[in-house]
Amino acid sequence: MDKPTILITGGAGFIGSALCRYLVQNSLARVVNLDALTYAANLSSLSVLDGCDDYFFEEGNVCDAEKVDELLEKYKPDGVIHLAAESHVDRSISGAQTFVQTNIVGTSILLDRSLEYWKKLDEEKSERFKFHLVSTDEVYGSLGAEGLFSEETAYDPSSPYSASKAAADHLAMAWYRTYGFPVVISNCSNNYGPYQFPEKLIPLIMLNALHHKKLPIYGDGSNVRDWLHVDDHVKALWMIWDEARIGEKYNVGGGNERTNHEVVLKICSVLDELTDSAPEGGYKSLIEFVIDRPGHDSRYAIDASKLEFELGWEAEENFESGIRSTVSWYLANESWWKPIIEDKYSGERLGL
Ligand code: NAD
Ligand code: TYD
């Protein structure tokens, strides 16, 4: 079969840019990247694709139905992978409306326009078409000390971010049940890796440490996240678009549960080893426990067995080597993160 054309939304963000690079560099798809270029976007994360015949960038908003129609008509994609979103919990606490607009309204507009486009496709193209909504494990809310999120876990979101993502998931599933629109949803745990905007825990801690600034841990640091390297996530995303059963949900996670305190200590010890500029007492002497995030979910952990058994996906990176390579990447790529901390966000506390 010919290489498919995929409309990726949010492809200038952290995960979207990794997906664009993976698909184009491995000749898996022709990629059209629709991105509104919000604060979280960074076109320099995609500079390796400059000049590639199979890559097209289009600036635009998923809430703009006319723009979406124009791109569907122009590129005639074989599917959509929808990542565009406001993605940071703390920002959603400071102001929820852009989350409602992009994550809920934007998703409904993209679903509507894609449905109209899909209805007009010939039989072969229509059967192949899939709309993949990229979602989060945060829709399930918080776990206690035991148990894992499965695809059957009831939705119970805590933050404006996770509530807006939960709403988007419900809309997508409604488009499947009501219109027979070929939707698939994936719910992934916390990602880390190169090119992540330094508002999220791992890059924030790394860059604060390099500047000998305090390393803020919310509450007592006992909250648990299940960390997955972004490259493992994008492989799962592609498998799911390519092979999954429509109308299904798939959890994605690497089984790397760590408390936030453990994550920060790990980053500090790798930095102690890889740099010769540690403060006296090592980077961990910069740790500061700060007032907790409102509504802070205590634990996320994923059961990814459906994805593993049905599609044969397996996480390749373990947390220890993944953190080490990520720290090394940030050390070697100051030219990527320096403009961000100078012009966009310099690490101040958000969401109080
Ligand atoms: P990100 O914040 O790094 O990037 C989001 C991208 O979407 C940016 O390039 C931004 O410009 C674009 N965008 C925002 N609003 C838009 C709009 N209205 N129209 C078009 N483009 C718009 O996010 P990320 O961390 O790469 O996450 C991508 C997706 O994966 C999101 O849907 C998120 O909910 C989901 N997810 C993220 C994680 C994680 O750990 N980062 C985990 C699971 C799921
Ligand atoms: P974050 O990277 O914002 O991802 P999410 O909220 O989607 O899980 O935060 C990861 C965890 O780290 C979360 O429990 C909140 C905590 N955290 C801190 O302790 N300090 C920080 O400065 C940040 C940004 C997060």
Question: Short summary of the structure?
Answer:
The chain is α/β, with parallel strands linked by helices and 352 residues long. The chain is built from twelve helices and 13 strands.
**Class from secondary-structure proportions:** alpha/beta
* Count of β-strands: 13
The profile of the biggest β sheet is: 7 strands, parallel
CATH architecture: 3-Layer(aba) Sandwich
SSE order in H/E notation?
EHEEHEHHHEHEEHEEEHEEHEHHH
Number of domains: 1
Mean pLDDT: 98
Per the principal axes of the C-alpha atoms, what is the gross shape?
globular
Full CATH superfamily name: NAD(P)-binding Rossmann-like Domain
Rg: 20 Å
Regarding CATH, which class?
A: Alpha Beta
Beta strand %: 15-25%
Give the terminus-to-terminus CA distance.
51 Å
- Helical content stands at 40-55%
Major sheet strand order: 3-2-1-4-5-6-11
Spans where pLDDT lies below 50 across 5 or more residues: none
Bound small molecules, deduplicated: nicotinamide-adenine-dinucleotide, thymidine-5'-diphosphate
